[in-house]
Specification:
Layout (H helix, E strand, L loop, with lengths): L2 H56 L11 H20 L5 H14 L5
């Protein structure tokens, strides 16, 4: 083999390696952005459920038999927040999945089911 053939083969191998590395980086970035999108829509669903629970709690009339105080109100709000978070992580009301499908279709050009 002459030097020109060896040099051309080395450049070809290097170009293939760079191409494969670029593909891996792009795939990794795509996977990371999909995970970030899933986390964002799940957090949105959690906030939505929290607001829904808070609004529902406000419709319950206070009977006045047992007076409420600030600490109890804070506890109820924190409880609603945790219920919303756990509910969203367990599948929630389906809002996160709907949002993900819509946003992923827009962002990544995927077909909606």
């Amino acid at each position: 083999m002459n030097e020109l053939t060896i040099h051309a083969a080395a450049q070809s191998n290097m170009a293939q390696h760079i191409e494969l590395t670029a593909d891996k980086v792009q795939a990794q970035r795509g996977a990371e952005s999909e995970q970030q999108l899933r986390a964002a829509v799940s957090e949105f669903e959690s906030l939505f459920i929290h607001e829904m629970l808070s609004a529902m709690r406000k419709t319950v009339p206070e009977d006045g038999l047992i007076p409420t105080n600030t600490a109890e109100n804070i506890f109820e709000d924190m409880l609603d927040e945790e219920i919303a978070k756990v509910s969203s992580q367990a599948g929630g009301i389906g809002l996160a999945e709907m949002l993900y499908q819509q946003l992923a279709a827009d962002a990544y050009g995927r077909q909606q089911p």
